[in-house]
Amino acid sequence: MIMTKDSSIATPLSEAFIKGAVEIESTPAGLLPHRLPQWARAQGADGQLLMAESQPSGVRLVFRTAATIIELDTLPTKRAYVGLPPRPDGVYDLVIDGKLERQASVSGGKVLRIDPARGSANLEPGEPGTARFAGLPARDKIVEIWLPHDETTELVGLRTDAPVEVGIDRSRPVWLHHGSSISQGSNAATPTGIWPVVAALKANVDLVNLGFGGSALLDSFTARTMAYTPADLISVKLGINIVNADLMRLRAFGPAVHGFLDTIREGHKQTPLVVISPIHCPIHETVPGPCAFDMAALGEGRVAFVAQGRPEEVAQGKLTLSVIREQLKAIVAQRAATDPNIHYVDGLALYGAADNATMPLPDALHPDGQTHRMMGERFVDLVFSQGVFGAARGPDRP
């Protein structure tokens, strides 16, 4: 069936349709979901962070409709790396009543052209495009369109061949999660394939994903954002970006973690809170940062990362993933003496050395799509099904 202008129904998009965003900005093109509020973006005016938080990982449109055709107009911002092959277009996952049914992409749009060798980036203008889903079941249904997790997306328009109404279910627990590019979804192929979304869909909870590529740096504005964001369940996955950036030494790390958790607790005094340490990453297990692009790999047209620190620098207070795991475990144990709702999860239980032997990190830093799925399923088993989050939902929770 071809949907014409006469047969289509245009539905004005509003914040009521959008889940998983912290704030919605009105732009000349439409609506831009943000995962940090404006005041936080002003305090953390870093290009990497601003790019990451504007990429709508975990953000989706949710509505009820009997439509068999859905067209979503968006203005994406693509990333292009000088010297590397073009990145694939971002994927839009259409989920019906909790099940993935269709996928689409939007070509064109703006282009953020990044030169890793020079450390420069330039934004090139572009035009909107359309993600089209046809042949959908002709029955009343809840539709979720999960936006690309790694592609800034301005929402321009929505057209269907049947009426649309807001269909958000507010009865499910809200899971608020913070982490690094791994939590944002780096190297996963689709927005419902990143590990926090895999876990959220399996556990039947509403996800707010504050996973920011390169930017899980114990920033106070991120902690305050979490303190102000309603949540029934909270998790923070800390460590890898601290080492990558060679951001701080051992003396600063412990107090910074305590301060970050203190701020979250100011807004969520008794909410179950899980602290997750880093997954296995061979380049940084015993070698400090900083981390950098592997220039030899870039010369071959592929992305990989290398550690630039030296193991002997640990004695001077530099951090490795092994050191951070020890510190996080001790910090949570200390706080648990007065906070019975804080818990520790070892990241190696999600992805450890044995997993790396059979499912290595493709770029030496980020898991692939299969590993994302495994991590999400393991997190459900560890934390939702048998652990603290499962108990916290109570008998009347799904």
Structure notes:
The chain is α+β, with helices and mostly antiparallel strands. It contains twelve helices and 21 strands. Strands 1, 6, 9, 10, 11 and 13 form a six-stranded mixed sheet that branches. Strands 2, 5, 7, 8, 12 and 14 form a six-stranded antiparallel sheet that branches.
Structure keywords:
398 residues; alpha+beta; 6-stranded mixed β-sheet; 6-stranded antiparallel β-sheet; disordered C terminus
Gist?
The chain has 398 residues and is an alpha+beta fold. The chain has helices at 38-43, 47-54, 181-184, 195-203, 220-228, 240-244, 250-267, 295-299, 321-336, 353-358, 369-385, 388-393; strands at 9-11, 18-19, 23-26, 31-34, 60-65, 70-81, 91-96, 99-105, 110-115, 120-124, 129-133, 141-146, 152-160, 164-166, 174-179, 206-211, 233-237, 273-276, 291-293, 305-307, 342-345. Strands 1, 6, 9, 10, 11 and 13 form a six-stranded mixed beta sheet that branches. Strands 2, 5, 7, 8, 12 and 14 form a six-stranded antiparallel beta sheet that branches.
The parts where pLDDT drops under 50 for at least 5 residues are 393-398
End-to-end distance? 38 Å
Number of helices: 12
Structural class: alpha+beta
Estimate the mean pLDDT confidence.
93
Q: Give the fraction of residues assigned to helices.
A: 25-40%
The gyration radius over C-alpha positions equals 21 Å
Main sheet overview: 6 strands, mixed
Q: How many DSSP E strands?
A: 21
Shape: globular
Instruction: Write down the oligomeric state.
Output: single chain
**What percentage of amino acids are in beta strands?**
25-35%
